[in-house]
Amino acid sequence: MLNVAVVGASGYTGVELLRLLHCHPEVAVTCITSEQSAGRPVADVFPTLRGRYAQVLENLEPVRVAEKADLIFTALPHKAAMEVVPTFLKLGRRVIDLSADYRFNDAAVYEQWYEPHMNPENLKEAVYGLPEVRRVKIGDAQLVGNPGCYPTSVILGLMPLLKKGLIDTTTIIADSKSGVSGAGRGAKVENLYCEVNDGFKAYGVGGVHRHIPEIEQELSFLAGERITITFTPHLVPMDRGILSTIYARLSGSATTADLAKIYVDFYDGEPFVRVLSAGSVPSTSHVRGSNFCDIGIVVDCRTGRVVVVSAIDNLVKGAAGQAVQNMNIMYGFPEALGLEGLPLFP
Amino acid sequence: MLNVAVVGASGYTGVELLRLLHCHPEVAVTCITSEQSAGRPVADVFPTLRGRYAQVLENLEPVRVAEKADLIFTALPHKAAMEVVPTFLKLGRRVIDLSADYRFNDAAVYEQWYEPHMNPENLKEAVYGLPEVRRVKIGDAQLVGNPGCYPTSVILGLMPLLKKGLIDTTTIIADSKSGVSGAGRGAKVENLYCEVNDGFKAYGVGGVHRHIPEIEQELSFLAGERITITFTPHLVPMDRGILSTIYARLSGSATTADLAKIYVDFYDGEPFVRVLSAGSVPSTSHVRGSNFCDIGIVVDCRTGRVVVVSAIDNLVKGAAGQAVQNMNIMYGFPEALGLEGLPLFP
Amino acid sequence: MLNVAVVGASGYTGVELLRLLHCHPEVAVTCITSEQSAGRPVADVFPTLRGRYAQVLENLEPVRVAEKADLIFTALPHKAAMEVVPTFLKLGRRVIDLSADYRFNDAAVYEQWYEPHMNPENLKEAVYGLPEVRRVKIGDAQLVGNPGCYPTSVILGLMPLLKKGLIDTTTIIADSKSGVSGAGRGAKVENLYCEVNDGFKAYGVGGVHRHIPEIEQELSFLAGERITITFTPHLVPMDRGILSTIYARLSGSATTADLAKIYVDFYDGEPFVRVLSAGSVPSTSHVRGSNFCDIGIVVDCRTGRVVVVSAIDNLVKGAAGQAVQNMNIMYGFPEALGLEGLPLFP
Amino acid sequence: MLNVAVVGASGYTGVELLRLLHCHPEVAVTCITSEQSAGRPVADVFPTLRGRYAQVLENLEPVRVAEKADLIFTALPHKAAMEVVPTFLKLGRRVIDLSADYRFNDAAVYEQWYEPHMNPENLKEAVYGLPEVRRVKIGDAQLVGNPGCYPTSVILGLMPLLKKGLIDTTTIIADSKSGVSGAGRGAKVENLYCEVNDGFKAYGVGGVHRHIPEIEQELSFLAGERITITFTPHLVPMDRGILSTIYARLSGSATTADLAKIYVDFYDGEPFVRVLSAGSVPSTSHVRGSNFCDIGIVVDCRTGRVVVVSAIDNLVKGAAGQAVQNMNIMYGFPEALGLEGLPLFP
Q: Which residues of B, range 257-296, sit inside 8 Å of C by Cβ?
């Protein structure tokens, strides 16, 4: 039995981790922390856990956490993560960090988009935890930087095209749409029900969203050349889900059927990527609550562009589910263990 | 391994059964039928199942179904169920029927609210499948009439009060609210997104909803006297969930704390009933996708009434989950097997 | 042209007042205040007003407000209202107060449910602004206490039954459901989109909601006897709307058709009460954005109870629209002036 | 007083026309037709109209309609419109057609995307009813082809860039998102509440949506050259609203501030186009129920692309409101008459 801690459990990612870990047969959750709610039973904060989680939320004291757990999931805001992760590592624990703090190869990029990095030495050792890209390295990692939700959807959507060199990489545009849980559980007017319901908007327009450098890092790695993209996030009145509609000009000519076949072959054997049949495109409804990434691909013959549509649940494949998948890889469990749940529909 | 069939799988209850059975370690789904979509892969009809269910939907030919399965879930409309259930039973199969056809002790009641009953002999043998009320009988049953969604929420909400004789049984009013999946997957204008979204309405007002006789049958059984109630269903703009707010006048005096204690004791050991602490009331959000029934109880001292609030997921504890729970009881599996999934929140 | 001020305009009631007043041909909005956002253009806070309201939000300085306006709408929290209303009145201004501060005949009742009343002398003169009950007094009032949203729906639903003495007044139960805008625009976790969406819950159960004494005051006035009710509010995942389902035992025997006729006659000539044909019940969808109160009435013959269902838009007939209707009465404008807009559907 | 008919009033566009026309002081609605519901009071089909519209829905007999009305709004499906419009015109009536039948300059384009055109002679005379593009011609038109919802949002979003020659016209991509009312009121499974709620999907991907030729016709007209675009529509779980995110590469260099100024100047004096301040982007929430088109514009300096975001209410500026605006122009009424209503928020 693997003892794990969930650090920073009072947000939506935290409770999603607890939901998934409850059904994992090889894991015991031995420590749950929350700065805001320390001292309260976790089931008071999240009544969904009532009757199944008896634990009380603890303060985040890194040494005590490390005493209780072999693996630590840090579901903290960026910066807060790198304040405690070094201690966990020093004490020989493995860490899956769900913040942005350990996602970048280059501290300078982090510093340009976020703030000064406090722990560049561990940053160098961290592995970007997208299993479809770096499964082997994840297996050996002591520290995994769990990918952002938007990046997961965009990178998986484009990977086969980039690896096969099928598109003009200067023409990539990703138009992404997210459910509201991506904005977190903080008490902000802009995320109130009445502000969001029955409306739709863009935000972070014009190349300013912090997921851009993360996406570009991985796309560049896959393509073997420096890639710059246009990325626009939007807010959808729904709890969960990200759908990315990705555009690029084809280098040569290819039909929808050609590309669908390339995608099917490329992702053959992947437990969580489902390539749709030629001409079909996904819906976030069909991945809700699951670790799937559904991908559809269509060629627009009139303009020579390819349109890739990818859908994930931002809290699962975009966060907590991917973290569990990474844990499975790190500990040699079957990769889908604890992640067998099918999407909830309707 | 138990071979089971799901008959009538193109509705929301059908797909929910398939979702739950996929995670059940003792069950193989060997046959799935749908009149409307026979010949199509079930994953085409419900893309959530993609990559996990390879089966093709079959026509409903009762003998062939019985050849493939030991236990048959009939998720058909009422009347359609009693057209095929007798064949399954004659061939020695066990049946859990999710329609209304086998829920009544008395064919006359069925006939008053529905239509002529075609199979009164099996009706007599059928067991009303609410485990908290009739666990032992369910274990031995060949045919289980799986309860309706509204009745499950109202009966579980009132059971302790009735068994203990704490209320004036002539004063019961159940004001219930359901998500839209309760209305089924038929193409009707009234269930279109734009007709339902951002609105709230009552329907079936004035003692005409067909779940009334079912509720009254069970409440009368529990109380040992004939009970008549006022019941009003409402439609909530949400996919899943039923919340029933139930009113009755207390016979004697009791505090909220007294009653909460009685409920906790009464439901002690039940795997799926969660009694909230005194003064708390439940939300459908906290049972979504799970087999829980959450119950809160409050005394209104100003008027001498008790207010019970109960919440379930109509597709799980109100239909498919309860059916799986009944199956577990019938076959001696641990009662919660395959039903461990925690509610999805948000 | 009547000069009006809207005091406390950064909430949902405030912006709704501005929306309605914009289409009122006899009114000029000459002053808009907001403590939180003073100094910002009102159209920055509410982009719906862009291009139509050029005003900048002002601090609430009562004397300056009174200099600019003949009539002042106070859309402040309770207590904050009674801190400024006396000044407005002293300076000869008329006031429509949308808080609870001037709704009660008896300061003792206010103090029991709220807090010490700072202005009992004006409370005595204030008129409860439900036009269907007190139209004539409203016309002469200097100070109107604009009714709460739940009370409006319950009182209008019961008024004919009480005036005609048709029910046992000890058996009244009002089960009410509200959209989320009723909870205001404060940044609270519980009102975040993800906390509310796709869920349904009760709150304030057991006779504790502050609208109870207001409802009971008016029902008692209408019935000519002291009435105590059970009232349960619920939260619906929708922006706007209140639907109240109201139960009482009939004193004598009456059919649905009898009562529908009584209601039609009773509300004949009322510009905003629409009585539905016998057997029909309303939906909040059909009053959204309008000042209508739709009422349906059904007798449950099996139990001798009557079920009244009433629907309003909580921000219009339940707040800002009713305030404009009161203004029209106070100034002799046609009662529906500026309120002609039909409900927005879908 | 202008007598108008609404032909095909049982859809969402029809009821929206009736809502808007009710508040128009120069118009009397003298005839309302519906094939499906002829003989029923219109207020039975749309309870929002209760108490304000007493009319009974009529069969569509063109000559009788023409006898009753000077101006006829045809809110019919395409093809059904061109079956009756010629009669109206022959009888000297003016027509605003809300279908696609009279939107194209070239019958061949219509025939490529729709079906054989039955009335090419009137097609030639019809004016594309986007006031911001062709106000003068609309004034004189006997027949107006009212624009589609997606085209309105895309054309208004791009017009200043095209007229000023600021973008590389081979690089235009419009990623559009629509509320569900755009799919009409037909009883289809795919538009049921539970199929749409809490999900997001693309559809018509790859250059196949019928609004493409309409958009391209107008963009080409504005640019003075043949333009081909990539267009992807999406379905948002909300009733109303379209938001289009439009991408193009800038020909030269321009800042966000430069372009915002160009847009403000370009649309100066337009009653319904609101250009947001530099860096702001719109939300459909802020135009709901109104005839506004809100536009924001941002330059992505990293990639040299401009991103335009435009928002409308698809049933108002995208259909019925634009039709009323066209009527106002045709009859010399103030252009905003009957369209003064501010957006409903929340």
A: 279, 281-286, 288, 296
